[in-house]
Description:
The structure is a single chain. The protein is α+β, with helices and mostly antiparallel strands. Helix content is 42%, strand content 25%. The chain has 15 helices and 17 strands. The chain has helices at 51-63, 81-95, 115-123, 148-161, 164-168, 170-184, 210-222, 245-253, 261-272, 282-292, 296-302, 307-315, 322-329, 336-341, 358-368, and strands spanning 2-4, 14-20, 24-30, 41-44, 46-48, 73-78, 102-108, 129-132, 140-146, 185-190, 197-206, 228-232, 237-242, 276-280, 320-321, 343-348, 352-354. The strands form 5 sheets. Strands 6-9-7-8 form a 4-stranded mixed sheet. Strands 10-11-13-12 form a 4-stranded antiparallel sheet. A 4-stranded antiparallel sheet has the order 15-14-16-17. The longest helix has 15 residues, at 81-95.
Amino acid sequence: MEINIIKILPKENNWIVKELKNNKIKVNYIAKRGNYNRKSFIFPKKILIDEKFVEALALYLGDGDFNNKDKRHLTFVSKDKDLVGFFLNFLRNYFRIKNKDITTLVHYKKSNNNLVKEWSNKLKIDRILTKYSNRHKEETCHIQINGVIFRLIFESVINNVLTNEIISDENSRRAFLRGIFAAEGSIGIDYLEKKPYISQITFNLSIKEKKLKNIISECLLLESVTFKVRENIKDNSLEINIQNWKNYIKLYNINLFYLCKRKQDRFNKISKNLNVHIKFKPAFRKYFFESLDMYQKDIAKKIDSWQANVSRTVDGTHLLRVEQILKLLNYSNYSKKDIVNNIEDIRIGSLTNLKPNHECIKFLKEYKSI
């Protein structure tokens, strides 16, 4: 999909478009009043709308100022260096924005002698402004693209991209979910269990963002992810709440978490330490334990368990964790591939039972090395 900038220029103003070399255009406009000091912008004549573009667009809808009535500039705010860097590269690669058009301000509460150097190196910007703020717990970067021309055209691009085509196309839909989750998503952790456990995955919006809520909801439904929408009038918030590992694994398979390293690390940490149990197909279970050629008490020692549990496992009334199965695999005649091909059920935690489909096996291979 491509967008021709000339064809989507807002109709309110008399636009002045000058064709340049290398498929570029120089854009300005004449308004009914206030035509002083307006900076023209150079744009690519056509912009390719691919997955990276949609990810950045959705990221901006979450962490940008799309709903701000002030159209004199465009602003994006984040505490995550990787997200700020990603959005800046998007502006540079797709809109040919130069550093001279960007104002970068980092708010901080805690003193950091390397603040400017760290942000400058990450964002590839020499001039970084700083400001103390008691309101920001962590360093937070505000980037601003100065100029009403860019703001109006960027907003027009967004409105033209946010169509049903984005939702119906699988790659674009998933890119949109990744971008909006990087900005507005969170992974809730329950620390009351024996091991920290994901209690919910949420998209956190303002109650006024009905259109955004509808787009996210439609995308999740097409991915067969179940969810609930909760509104809180008191704090003007809206939450799209997702629970159950059946859904989490679907979100993992569309790479929902990868744009934001902080959130990806959070998901990875829980997933690697997750209790995952395997139920074998009956015939394979019999052959697998026979191949070990050990007494049950010896098997129990190998996997740090009890003989009674091993006996129940052989009978099919108790399940072993993946880590225990991998230990026993060293003493059997079977391979990891044999294990995968003979899984009847997968149990995550104490509540979720899953069938060994492609999504689940991919998850086990990455986080449990099966």
